[in-house]
């Protein structure tokens, strides 16, 4: 299957749209509750058709139907009513409350099931949760809403990546992201580029291409049983996204949504502002010192006298009032979308177009996205056809560089001397950040500390992504108990990147230029044969299916250093361009099946099995089977429980799935062209990792038990789950003798466990007259432990794996340690004696431990959220608080803040009054000699520099709580819209990331990280500040 699938798919969709006719008889009615109060949003459908609509705010509806057909009218929490169409019929109805709220959710392969029959944990949220206090990446919008789902969203610009982890993940290597499925089509959701230890920029991920206005619902399949039917790609859970489709109505419906937010930078820094730049308590007296040590704030108190600065200009030695935020620009986002819908009893359509424009806080940084989404559905007799296609083009312009220098504008914005105006960095020429000769204004002796204006305006980086996600699903009902279904889907993206570090850059005077092109595609084909039947008190549904998945990735790049013509970035303008090419292809064939048996509406049994065949495995050992079994018992159906209990269900399940299949070509040795020798091409191994032909995906088995309880006529609900997951044969790299010509080989040796508890509590606290108050609380605790990390060459157990590393000179590392929780931070402690006394050297400087030691865990074991929704007449107020408990954060920013004299703690001792006492560390030897000394003024910088290099001094408890979302919405009453074309409208004041409610971290946000990679969790380094987003959302339906 190649790219032609996209063209054929689009042609089918267009033909189906053109084939619709909408000349239908229209009937109208009113839907109310038992007290006669209108029910907005009630569903009205014509039985045995795709023809359906919803009531407006005043409970009114209109629908096309023919005499003899039956209308089914439903609303959550009420029994369904039926009305036969015909002369004299009354199409208004009063619905009666249902004693049991029998909700339905979307599960594996897009199958809709009632919650009462589920044997595993699934959480579904409606699309409206993404469409008011929105973000460019919908992954961020999940924060705090779902028990057991942890979101990492570092501040790396709009359209940046999000890391979503469910139940702690299943892999030691960080390969723990869920599978994303859109309308039944698995999609590519990996990142397009992340900042690493040495810097870089976040180029976003696959989720950033989805428009929130197109989402109808989102389901999270958490455990192995819930996701087993997706096989090896779903061992870390599945996130199912269902997009909106058309509805039956008279004429064409139009829905318009406009969202605007203005973002305010949140400055978490609390640096000292009493002392200015200088060293040893003295001001700089010459240009060399003023430039080489520009950022050191170890001078005397500000006194207003003129002092030389890095550019040779003497200015008053005083606090100019400069704030970190002064460098940044106003940040705002416009997001507009319009959707056209229509349909009748034989089909419907929806065409939606959206436009997002974002100006980032970093000058000259932008993110733009346009989407076109088309959904076409039809029912032709026994044949049902559902189809969708989504096209996205997104552009990142000068995405912020983060983590290490050079190019991280936040370093200078954060550490700039208070008495140096920004104009000194900006310069006096139209070319910002440049001197008169066009070269960078070098403001520091370290050439790798780039002028922030030069980095923002002269280093040009662009990325443009074109992406198509499309799917076609056809289902034919042969009888009431037998159907056949075929589904084909594709996800294709083309990405162009261009980057130049400008000619005249201080550390690279002649500049460079690079271009990269990447094509990624996934194709899926699936066929299912199934049915459902009932006999006596039993209900049975079943299906078997086959599927094929193919993925291809191709990368081309070229570039080089030294621009021939100054200040002109082009492939034709580098001295010695180099080229590179990469290609990989992988596939998977599968067979699967499911049987669901229900007895008397209270006992349910679910059995599934899937066998995957991998193209990346040896043909003699390339098949793996994944079974699952689950049961649920609705005990309230047969047992007389206290009247306060409305519903009670127990569930239990077990499943085994695989994951983390070998990368393409990791089981066979591959070759590439090496450097020419004497004019001839040479060959070389493609990698220094030795292939392993017997590699296999890891195996994850999980036991889950849970309960769903409802009280007080379903006004109060408790859902809980306890799980125990074990992963074996995780793929890890093991070191081998370099005499082999290789450094390592991949082997199946890793083992870990995940154990946890999840709780969801929902309640309708008040429902009286025009006022309601609904609340929801979720809590989850997960503990992941490394059980086996493999063996050394001598056969001894490997004690730890290094995972992530800090950029500061301390050598801090995040490790997975045998027998311990995942993500252990190792760093230096203050060296102490056996009795706990601290060691200091002869100068009184603190002495750190001889080696790194365990400091704590970087992962939050507890995550959760608490939301409240208040409605009064036409007003609705929604508030969400999310929290995380436990874990620690190493703030590299504070390491430098101590070294450079910015941290507020460094005010102590500047007057020569600091005294330390402990034991003497003399000549590298611990002694029992007491030391009690006063640190002189000209050495206080040495003391605090040594203090900051002791890791435990800059590690904080990373627990926090945030007011994450607020939405105050007003729905215009129907009476205000009468006489207009508007059917409904609402206006909302929205806010996101509004307040940090509690935190123990100094100067940086507790969520800070330099990327969304698992290895960077708990490590911070000059992070971009977070923003507070406040705006308006307007929705109008015609």
Describe this structure in words.
With 1038 residues, this protein is mainly β. The chain has two domains: 4-98, Immunoglobulin-like (Sandwich), CATH 2.60.40.1120; 140-262 and 331-407 and 459-788 and 859-887 and 961-1037, Maltoporin, Chain A. Helices cover 6% and strands 48% of the residues. The chain contains nine helices and 55 strands. It has a 22-stranded antiparallel barrel. A five-stranded mixed β-sheet has the order 10-16-17-13-14. Strand 2 (43-46) and strand 3 (52-54) form a beta hairpin. Helix 7 (892-900) packs antiparallel against helix 8 (940-948). It starts with a helix and ends with a strand.
Class by SSE composition: mainly beta
SS summary, helix count:
9
Poorly predicted runs of 5 or more residues: 1-24
How does the overall form come out from the CA principal axes? Answer: globular
**Mean pLDDT across residues:** 89
Beta-strand segment tally: 55
CATH superfamily of the largest domain: TonB-dependent receptor, beta-barrel domain
Sheet bearing the most strands, described? 22 strands, antiparallel, barrel
Q: What is the rounded distance between the termini?
A: 41 Å
Total individual domains:
2
The level 1 CATH classification of the largest domain is Mainly Beta
The radius of gyration over CA amounts to 31 Å
CATH topology of the largest domain: Maltoporin, Chain A
The appropriate CATH architecture of the largest domain is: Beta Barrel
């Amino acid at each position: 299957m190649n790219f032609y699938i996209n063209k054929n798919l689009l042609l089918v969709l267009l033909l189906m749209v053109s084939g619709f006719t909408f000349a239908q008889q229209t009937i109208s009615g009113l839907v109310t509750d038992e007290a006669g109060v209108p029910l907005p949003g009630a569903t009205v459908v014509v039985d045995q058709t795709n023809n359906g609509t919803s009531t407006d705010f005043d409970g009114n509806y209109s629908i096309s139907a023919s005499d003899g057909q039956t209308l089914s009218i439903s609303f959550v929490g009420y029994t369904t009513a039926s009305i036969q169409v015909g002369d004299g019929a009354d199409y208004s109805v009063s619905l009666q409350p249902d004693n049991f709220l029998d909700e339905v959710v979307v599960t594996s392969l897009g199958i809709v099931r009632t919650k009462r029959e589920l044997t595993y944990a699934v959480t579904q949220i409606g699309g409206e949760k993404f469409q008011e206090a929105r973000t460019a990446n919908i992954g961020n919008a999940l924060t705090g809403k779902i028990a057991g789902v942890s979101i990492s969203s570092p501040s790396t610009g709009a359209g940046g990546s999000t890391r979503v982890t469910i139940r702690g993940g299943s892999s030691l290597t960080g390969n723990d992201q869920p599978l994303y499925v859109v309308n039944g089509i698995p999609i590519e959701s990996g990142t397009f580029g992340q900042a690493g230890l040495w810097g870089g920029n976040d180029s976003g991920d696959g989720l950033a291409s989805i428009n929130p206005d197109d989402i109808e619902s989102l389901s999270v399949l958490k455990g192995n049983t819930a996701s087993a039917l997706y096989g090896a790609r779903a061992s870390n859970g599945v996130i199912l996204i269902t997009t909106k489709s058309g509805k039956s109505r008279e004429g064409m419906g139009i829905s318009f949504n406009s969202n605007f937010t203005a973002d305010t930078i949140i400055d978490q820094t609390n640096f000292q502002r009493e002392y200015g730049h200088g060293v040893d308590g003295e001001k700089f007296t010459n240009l060399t010192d003023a430039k080489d040590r520009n950022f050191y704030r170890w001078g005397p108190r500000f006194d207003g006298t003129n002092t030389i600065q890095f550019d040779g200009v003497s200015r008053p030695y005083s606090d100019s009032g400069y704030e970190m935020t002064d460098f940044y620009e106003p940040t705002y986002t416009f997001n507009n979308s319009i959707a056209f819908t229509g349909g009748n009893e034989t089909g419907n359509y929806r065409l939606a177009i959206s436009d997002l424009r974002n100006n980032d806080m970093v000058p000259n940084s932008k993110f733009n996205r346009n989407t076109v989404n088309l959904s076409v559905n039809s029912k032709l007799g026994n044949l049902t056809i559902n189809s969708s296609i989504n096209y996205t083009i997104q552009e990142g312009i000068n995405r912020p560089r983060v983590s290490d220098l050079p190019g991280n504008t936040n370093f200078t914005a954060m550490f700039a001397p208070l008495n140096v105006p920004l104009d000194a960095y900006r310069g006096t020429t139209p070319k910002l950040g440049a001197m008169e000769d066009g070269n960078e204004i070098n403001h520091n002796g370290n050439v790798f500390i780039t002028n922030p204006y030069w980095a923002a305006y002269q280093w040009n980086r662009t990325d443009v992504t074109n992406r198509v996600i499309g799917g076609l699903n056809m289902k034919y009902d042969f009888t009431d108990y037998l159907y056949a279904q075929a589904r084909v889907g594709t996800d294709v993206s083309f990405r162009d990147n261009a980057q130049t570090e400008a000619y005249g850059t201080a550390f690279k005077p002649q500049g460079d230029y690079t271009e990269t092109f990447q094509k990624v595609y996934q194709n899926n084909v699936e066929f299912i044969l199934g049915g459902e039947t009932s006999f006596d008190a039993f209900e049975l549904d079943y299906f078997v299916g086959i599927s094929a998945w193919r993925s291809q990735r191709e990368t081309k790049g070229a570039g080089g250093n030294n621009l021939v013509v100054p200040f002109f970035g082009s492939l034709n303008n580098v001295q010695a361009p180099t080229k590179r090419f990469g290609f990989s292809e992988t596939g998977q064939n599968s067979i699967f099946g499911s049987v669901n048996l229900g007895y008397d509406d209270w006992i349910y049994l679910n059995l599934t099995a899937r066998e995957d065949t991998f193209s990346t495995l040896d043909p003699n050992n390339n098949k793996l089977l994944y079974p699952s079994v689950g049961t649920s018992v609705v005990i309230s159906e047969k047992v007389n429980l206290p009247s306060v209990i409305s519903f009670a269900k127990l569930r239990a399940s077990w499943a085994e799935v695989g994951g983390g299949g070998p990368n393409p070509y990791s089981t066979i040795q591959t070759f590439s062209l090496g450097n020419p020798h004497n004019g001839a091409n040479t060959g070389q191994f493609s990698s220094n990792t030795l292939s392993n032909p017997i590699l296999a995906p890891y195996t994850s088995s999980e036991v889950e038990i849970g309960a769903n309880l409802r009280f007080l006529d379903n006004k109060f609900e408790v859902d809980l789950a306890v799980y125990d997951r074990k992963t074996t044969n995780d793929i890890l790299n093991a070191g081998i003798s370099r005499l082999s010509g290789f450094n390592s080989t991949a082997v199946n040796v890793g083992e870990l466990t995940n154990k946890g508890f999840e709780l969801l509590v929902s309640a309708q606290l008040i429902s009286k007259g025009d006022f309601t108050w609904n609340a929801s609380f979720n809590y989850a605790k997960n503990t992941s432990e490394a059980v086996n990390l493999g063996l050394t060459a001598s056969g001894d157990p490997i004690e730890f794996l290094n995972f992530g590393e800090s950029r500061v000179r301390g050598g801090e590392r995040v490790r997975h340690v045998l027998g311990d929780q995942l993500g252990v931070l190792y760093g230096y402690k203050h060296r102490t004696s056996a009795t706990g006394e601290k060691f200091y050297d002869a100068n009184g400087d603190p002495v750190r431990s001889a080696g790194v030691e365990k400091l704590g865990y970087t992962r939050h074991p507890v995550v959760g959220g608490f939301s409240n929704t208040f409605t009064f007449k036409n007003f609705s107020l929604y508030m969400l608080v999310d929290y995380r408990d436990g874990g620690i954060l190493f703030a590299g920013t504070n390491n430098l803040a101590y070294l450079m004299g910015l941290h507020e703690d460094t005010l102590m001792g500047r007057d020569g009054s600091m005294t330390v006492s402990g034991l003497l560390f003399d000549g590298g030897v611990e002694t029992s000699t007491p030391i009690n000394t006063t640190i002189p003024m000209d050495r206080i910088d040495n003391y605090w520099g040594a203090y900051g290099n002791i890791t435990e001094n800059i590690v904080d408890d990373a627990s926090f709580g945030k007011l994450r979302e607020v939405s105050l919405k007003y729905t215009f009453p129907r009476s205000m819209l009468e006489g207009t074309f508007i059917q409904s409208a609402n206006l909302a004041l929205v806010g996101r990331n509004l307040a940090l409610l509690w935190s123990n971290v100094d100067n940086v946000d507790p969520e800070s990280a330099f990327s969304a990679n698992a290895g960077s969790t708990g490590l911070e380094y000059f992070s971009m500040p977070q923003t507070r987003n406040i705006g308006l959302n307007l929705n109008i339906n015609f």
